[in-house]
Amino acid sequence: MVVVEGKKSGNPEVFLIENLLDAGILKIKTPADDRYTTHLKENPRIHRGDAEVLALALELDGIALMDDEEARGMAEIERIEHHGTIYLLLRMMKMGLLTKEETPNGLDEMLHRGWRCSTELYAGILKAVK
Description:
Elements: H1 2-9, H2 14-22, H3 35-40, H4 48-60, E1 64-65, H5 69-78, E2 82-83, H6 85-94, H7 102-112, H8 119-129
Parallel strand pairs: 1-2
């Protein structure tokens, strides 16, 4: 469902998520207690999916992976560790799931599909890969 909806809306990072799901590295979960999710959804700028990601990160003492600025701001307020798609891409490389050659290709594929970043960030990512 997550990947299908991501593809429908054209989310550029969906191919990374699909690969991680297929490899069994990521699993789809629902928060056990929806009270925190309901509380977060009271903020109209926080999307349901981001509220669930934050709730799960808090519940599992994990890391919230999200790129939405509003959601990342909420993670800061709630003191929930969070990172974006680039963290995931570089983490996959460190884990050996992507090679140093495949990682820039993954970044370029995300850009091709609509993900945006500054030239400074792009250069920094390429430097981190080397």
